[in-house]
Amino acid sequence: MRYTVAIGRAETYHPDVLQPALVRLLAPLGGIASFVKPGERVLLKPNMLAAREPERAVTTHPEILRQVIALVREAGGVPLVGDSPGVGGIRRVAERSGILAVVEETGAELAPFDETVTVRGRGLFREFQIARPYLEADRLINLPKLKTHEMMTMTCAVKNLFGAVVGTAKAGWHLKAGADRELFARMLLEIYLLRLPDLTIVDGILAMEGDGPGSGDPRHCGLLLAGANAVAVDVIAAELAGIPKKLLWVERAAEKLGIDGWDRGAIDTCGLCFDDARVSPFRLPHISDVQFGLPRFLKNRLRHYLTSRPCGNPDACNLCGICRDTCPPGAIEIRDGKLRFDYHACIRCFCCRELCPQGVLEVREGALLKIIKKFV
């Protein structure tokens, strides 16, 4: 089976630029009418990681959402907007990111992910608690932001669907699977398979590189991507961003599990010429771990030396406590006016850095990791 990923360009989020760019992007895929039928309730799932302004490139830009809402309405669909942010309530995150204003101005429905449904897993994990609106909508349109990710290297189409897991349950999954990148990637794919998105549209106009998904640097790319298969969309997004396959944990896991869309040879691109869409390679997150593949007894003994770990910056940290409150294993405390980390309990998921509103948590590398990096 072959898969198609459309590539388009939009240099700005101005509606006069973005609206026709989205129409052109979707045209080779059959237009929005191929994915939305009259009367259907259509859940739009943006990236609403945390309460940040649009120019920081942490969340899906609100103008992308506005234009997709308009397209859904043109097709006769009823648009809903939902997510479960990593920290903070959905209204607070939606307000700060500009998404709430769009929802109110367009008359779309904000669908908080606060009620869950227990769904039996189809793989390694036996069950998941998934947001009811996510499962019950007639159609699902995935609206991820193209960003680097300190744990998964890249977050885009598949990773964005982790937002279907509600609130504090995300911390539980980090505890279950977050200490092992391969296991965490498999968990993300099993969530993806519970409810395949009907369409994915990637906001790559202002992307993020470096220490994403919350503390990286905005990177203007002027790109839009769309496709019916989210794994295939991720494969193309990573190639355009110059991210090597060996660092793409989700895509490697998809290949290992035989999930549709992983094979680049089976993916066709349309719209903008692929070579014209390429950008200079993204600056990637620091190498945080070289212990995968080691026997467990060696991992336990050498973990401190073979991994990076988060640390506080006392000159910049205002001790807001968000990192402490959201740390999955509870490895952070505030004591004597400083952040204190229990590195024996820390699972190196970097959720603390991901959700720090000031982006001031730093990274300290283990001694052996420093040496190894000199030869990488």
TrEMBL record:
Q: Does the keyword rRNA processing apply?
A: no
Chain coiled-coil ranges: none
Q: Which domain of life is it from?
A: Bacteria
Domain 4Fe-4S ferredoxin-type span(s) in chain numbering: 308-337, 338-366
The name under which this protein is listed is DUF362 domain-containing protein
Family matches, as PROSITE patterns: 4FE4S_FER_1, 4FE4S_FER_2
Q: Which UniProt keywords apply?
A: 4Fe-4S, Iron, Iron-sulfur, Metal-binding
